[in-house]
Design brief:
heterodimer, A: about 120 residues, mainly beta, 7-stranded mixed sheet, 4-stranded antiparallel sheet, 11 strands, about 0% helix, globular, B: about 110 residues, 6-stranded mixed sheet, 5-stranded antiparallel sheet
C-alpha cells in the first residue's frame, strides 16, 4: 500500500514558538494532501486540504494565518503552527490521496505536539 | 450538512465472535466508502474500501454496502484481542471531500 511519513513524530515546544510538521508520500505522488487534528478521545477534525502548487483550502473555523500549509511538491506538504499556544497541543495527522480517480486516503503516523 | 453516523460504543465481543460495526451516511451522492482502524495514540490505518452495493470480503473482514438504505457495515470474523481499536467509517462525497464518522470503539475480550 501507499506509504506516508510524517516528521517529527513528537515535538514539545514553548508557547509562542512556531513548529513545522512535514508530510511526505514515499512511494507515490500525492495530488492532494489533507491535514487533520485529533484531540484525546475525539474524532478526526479536518483542518485543510492542500493541492500541489496551489493554496490550501481551510475548513471553517481554522485560522489560515495560524496554520500555514505549503504543498510545494507532489510528495511533500508542510504544516506550520505559528505562535503555538497550549491549546494547540494535539495530535496532527496528514493524509495523502493518490488521485487519478482513486479517492482513498493514506494516513501518516501523526505528530504529537505539546506546547508548554 | 453531510454526516456520517456511527455508534460510539464501546462494542464488546468475546474472542472468536463476530463483531458487527455499522455506519449510516446522509449524502445519497456518496461514491466510496472506507473503513479505517485506529489504535489508541496512533493514526488511522485503512482496512477496506467498497464502492458497489453488496459484500466485499478480505480475510476476516467483510464490508457490506447498501446505498438504498445509506448504510455500510464492517464484519470482523473470529475477533481477536488485537482487533480492539476504534473503527472509523469514512465516506467520499466528491470534490476531495471525505467525511469521517466519530468512530466505534471495539473491545474484544480474551
Amino acid at each position: 500500500g501507499a506509504v506516508v511519513s510524517q516528521h517529527p513524530s513528537r515535538v514539545i515546544c514553548k508557547s509562542g514558538t512556531s513548529v513545522k510538521i512535514e508530510c511526505r508520500s514515499l512511494d507515490f505522488q500525492a495530488t492532494t494532501m489533507f491535514w487533520y487534528r485529533q484531540f484525546p478521545k475525539q474524532s478526526l477534525m479536518l483542518m485543510a486540504t492542500s493541492n500541489e502548487g496551489s493554496k490550501a483550502t481551510y475548513e471553517q473555523g481554522v485560522e489560515k494565518d495560524k496554520f500555514l500549509i505549503n504543498h510545494a511538491s507532489l510528495t511533500l506538504s508542510t504544516l506550520t503552527v505559528t505562535s503555538a499556544h497550549p491549546e494547540d497541543s494535539s495530535f496532527y495527522i496528514c493524509s495523502a490521496n493518490i488521485g487519478g480517480g482513486v479517492d482513498t486516503q493514506y494516513f501518516g503516523p501523526g505528530t504529537r505536539l505539546t506546547v508548554l | 450538512q453531510k454526516e456520517v453516523e456511527q455508534n460510539s460504543g464501546p462494542l464488546s465481543v468475546p474472542e472468536g465472535a463476530i463483531a458487527s460495526l455499522n455506519c449510516t451516511y446522509s449524502d445519497r451522492g456518496s461514491q466510496s466508502f472506507f473503513w479505517y482502524r485506529q489504535y489508541s495514540g496512533k493514526s488511522p490505518e485503512l482496512i477496506m474500501f467498497i464502492y458497489s452495493n453488496g459484500d466485499k470480503e478480505d480475510g476476516r473482514f467483510t464490508a457490506q454496502l447498501n446505498k438504498a438504505s445509506q448504510y455500510v457495515s464492517l464484519l470482523i470474523r473470529d475477533s481477536q484481542p488485537s482487533d480492539s481499536a476504534t473503527y472509523l467509517c469514512a465516506v467520499y462525497t466528491g470534490g476531495f471531500k471525505t467525511i469521517f464518522g466519530a468512530g466505534t470503539r471495539l473491545f474484544v475480550k480474551a
